Amino acid sequence: MLLMTEHPTAHPLDDLTRHPAADRHPRTLTLVAVRQGSQWAALCPELGVVSCGDTSEAALRALQSAILDLLDFERDGGPSAGEPVPAEELQALLDSHEGAEPVATRRLDLDAAAER
Known about the structure:
With 116 residues, this protein is α+β, with helices and mostly antiparallel strands. The protein is built from three helices and five strands. The model is unreliable at 1-14 (pLDDT under 50).
């Protein structure tokens, strides 16, 4: 299995650092996208949040939107995110990857992004 890691200098996910509910969650989030059939499935294992898209980038962007929506909901008094995804379930997702494109991953360090 090929693994691709992106470390952009500026990315829309950096907006998470300025979100008021962000400090209730891990300071580093993992975003993973795998191809499943004609779609890409994206997961944040620390928060148990999922999304999908036609491309890896679209899936990661949709995941960002879902995370921001979750943080807004929490800030407004709603319940917090679900449980972190167990390692064996994350491995099963990675093993389900189909196609020639590599698995897409991003690590988002909220503290480092806030220092920029």
